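Lecture 7 notes: from sequence to structure.
We start with the chain below.
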Amino acid sequence: MARGAICGVVAGHRVTFTRAPLAAPTTQPEVLSDDLELAAVDDQAERQALFAQLLDRLPPDQRRVLEGRFFEQRSIRELAQELGRSEGAVKQLQFRALETLRNHMRDRHE
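Predicted structure tokens for the same chain:
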């Protein structure tokens, strides 16, 4: 799930990526021999599912800014023009969205 990649930004690290459609695997997945590796995969899938739910709960403008910035790699200026807002307002939407996601993730892990 592409939304999981934005978790690095929520955790305070900048991550860039492109959005790719989900496709069914064409081959059998590798069998993980190490229990720790398997646990990491499960944790990652859980975090991605949780993150997708949290992203969907954001107000539409905040969600649109995050999608534009991180999934579409659009500039603040481009999003400001699209949303009919100032660049400062778009930066504030991005800040608030990331802060909301950080707080929700932190609350879930406490």
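Points to note: The CA atoms of residues 2 and 55 lie 12 Å apart. The longest helix spans residues 35-57.
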